[in-house]
Amino acid sequence: MKSVLPxxxxxxxxxxxxxxxxxxxxxxxxxxxxxxxxxxxLAKYAREGHAVHIAYATxxxxxxxxxxxxxxxxxxxxxxxxxxxxxKALDLDTINFAGFGDGTLGAATDPPGAPLSQLAVxxxxxxxxxxxxxxxxxxxxxxYGHPDHRLVSAVVTQAIQASGPAAPRLVYPGIAAxxxxxxxxxxxxWATTHPGRLNISVAYTDADLAAAASAFxxxxxxFPADYRQGAPALLHRSVWRGxxxxxxxxxxxASASLFEGK
Length: 262
What we know:
The chain is α/β, with parallel strands linked by helices. It has one domain: Rossmann fold (3-Layer(aba) Sandwich), CATH 3.40.50. 40% of the residues lie in helices and 15% in strands. It is built from eight helices and seven strands. The protein has helices at 5-16, 39-47, 73-90, 114-130, 142-145, 147-161, 206-218, 225-240; strands spanning 24-29, 51-58, 94-100, 134-137, 169-173, 200-203, 243-248.
């Protein structure tokens, strides 16, 4: 008769192994639908049991897209609901709207930069409340150069650069500058990043891509139905290629995760 002790010992060893600590990711963007650029990544970390939060500086109230709606509060409310729909599709934990007007972050004010100072306060409060391990936001290019994207990047970066070594890790998504002809026409005006600077490469699964596809369907005001249907596969083939590329705002060694030690 075989002894059950070795099998029992192995089972106990597995039970005694501490589970990996769930980490916290905070994504900060300018407008509802900005999250689509990294949607599979957000879905991946949510699926793996990490806490994933998202915040928007504005409600996109001046971006009617293809809706035919007039800019204003009603449009902003609709776009907030679209963002909530996308957050649910990606299984995100919380969603926050800072309430600034679309296109107003860089407005000339007295004193200068008042909206940005107010946004900085709100970002700081959100960081203190959520205590993320990692923050993801636009890089200085703003993707395709949108001023609100660039300003959100600057405000979030300023918050982290003023903090000590215990501050959250800050990362920017990027498109590798390889063969511009390989990018779809919709991305012809997007900024690219030298591949050597993209030190983070996060693989996603078919399930994550499916969640991203569901998130695309939420943004009915912004994209026609055929684009919402086809964009995820297009991005998967020509931009993401199975991995979301990012870089550290403040350089670290190359890694395959947004969280240390993973």
